[in-house]
Design goal:
The protein has 398 residues and is of the alpha/beta class. The chain is built from 12 helices and 14 strands. It is globular and about 65 Å long.
Length: 398
């Protein structure tokens, strides 16, 4: 609705509002402007009946990208909300209260989920129902079979929960382990841990807020590991930054949850958000962006390989699609993290108008995750800038 420039002006009458094409949803809590959205295919926003239609279409399109076992969707506004809902579902469906996460995990900012996010710092106290396990870091731990080691750690956490009279509910993992330092390889390593948590009668929840919607060169990060989670959580990429998120789950889990409690989200699945979500799926498909992430990601990794040979500062380069982690070390033999150098590289890149970040327990892993529309030429520009930044930082260290 247009807002009067002069606040003393009388508000428009109901008939004037109708003339301005404002429809009031008598079931919901808000008014909706029916003017066309830019790029909206039908050039109209049909409400009430079509709000449901838009929601159904969005969910059907989304489910087509997921395994058949994951048949039900609940929409939220943020990834934190999605993980919080998954947390509640896991507790309701298993009867357990114990959750297992990695040592430097991040899953959100609600009260419950912040307690499953050790990366938020010591100020967030973990409850006695949370257990942390070492991240599956093949480079730093030297594990020949990182998958089996990770599964063993999960089993040990399950045993410790039970020893304290706590029934396990779920293992919650970000499938790219971003805050743990970006740990994508080898593909398939998550499968033994999935088996281990299910042996305990608990669930596997995969957090796809960062890895999902094509970033890793596959639509979903979990698919690289050959597993079908019990619950999948989705976040900001679902709306390309617009606040739409969701939870996808096995139908029987939602049936149990729904029989025991209620869930309501005023804005989750609203018409505007669903239209945005549909547009995102359209662009991913029409512009082949998942394939682009895979091919440009491969090119990016290949062009970065010579940098690892040129600079001792680089201990390891890890990537899946357009999600790259460069592990910086003070000494290639001891693999001591070089957090200060990482900050300097990030700043040196910023002066070259290239934005990257640092992640990991010691903030020494350069986190590079460009837009999915990234081209080979832009990848070359990125690597050239990184080469200069690394040379600058190496010169400062002399």
């Amino acid at each position: 609705m247009e807002i009067a420039e002069n606040l003393t002006e009388a508000p428009p009458s109901v008939s004037e509002r109708h003339a301005r094409r404002i429809a009031v949803d008598c079931f919901g809590l808000s008014a909706h402007d029916l003017r066309p959205l830019p790029g909206e295919r039908d050039q109209t926003f049909r409400l009430r009946d079509d709000r449901g239609r838009e929601l159904v279409l969005k969910i059907e399109r989304l489910l087509q990208t997921l395994p058949d076992e994951l048949g039900h969707v609940m929409l939220t506004c943020t990834g934190s909300e999605a993980n919080d809902l998954a947390y509640r579902m896991a507790r309701a469906s298993t009867g357990g209260t114990g959750f297992i996460v990695t040592d430097c995990a991040y899953h959100g900012v609600t009260a419950a989920i912040s307690e499953l996010s050790p990366s938020l710092g010591a100020g967030v106290v973990q409850p006695p129902t949370t257990r942390t396990v070492p991240a599956p870091d093949r480079y730093r731990r030297g594990d020949r079979d990182v998958g089996e080691r990770f599964a063993a750690d999960v089993r040990a956490a399950v045993a410790d929960l039970r020893a304290h009279g706590i029934r396990p509910a779920a293992l919650l993992v970000d499938t790219i382990f971003s805050s743990d330092g970006i740990l994508p390889d080898p593909a398939g390593f998550l499968a033994p841990a999935a088996a281990a948590i299910r042996e305990a009668g608990a669930l596997l929840i995969t957090d796809e807020v960062q890895a999902g919607f094509g970033r890793t060169g596959t639509m979903w990060g979990f698919s690289r590991h050959g597993v079908v989670p019990d619950i999948v959580t989705l976040g900001k990429p679902m709306g390309n930054g617009h606040p739409i998120a969701g939870v996808v789950a096995r139908p029987e889990l939602l049936e149990t949850f729904g029989s025991r409690t209620r869930y309501f989200n005023t804005f989750g699945g609203n018409t505007v958000s669903c239209a945005v979500g549909m547009a995102v799926l359209d662009v991913l498909e029409d512009e082949a962006l998942v394939e682009n992430a895979r091919t440009v990601g491969e090119h990016l990794r290949n062009t970065m390989a010579p940098l690892a040979e040129r600079y001792e500062l680089i201990g390891d380069v890890r990537s899946a699609g357009l999600f790259v982690g460069i592990d910086l070390v003070r000494d290639p033999d001891t693999r001591e993290p070089a957090g200060t150098a990482a900050v300097r590289v990030v700043e040196a890149m910023r002066t070259r108008r290239i934005l990257i970040n640092a992640t990991g327990p010691h903030a020494n892993v350069l986190k590079i995750h460009p837009p999915l529309v990234f081209t080979h030429e832009q990848a070359d520009l990125l690597v050239h800038g990184l080469d200069e930044a690394l040379a600058e930082v190496a010169e400062q260290a002399r």
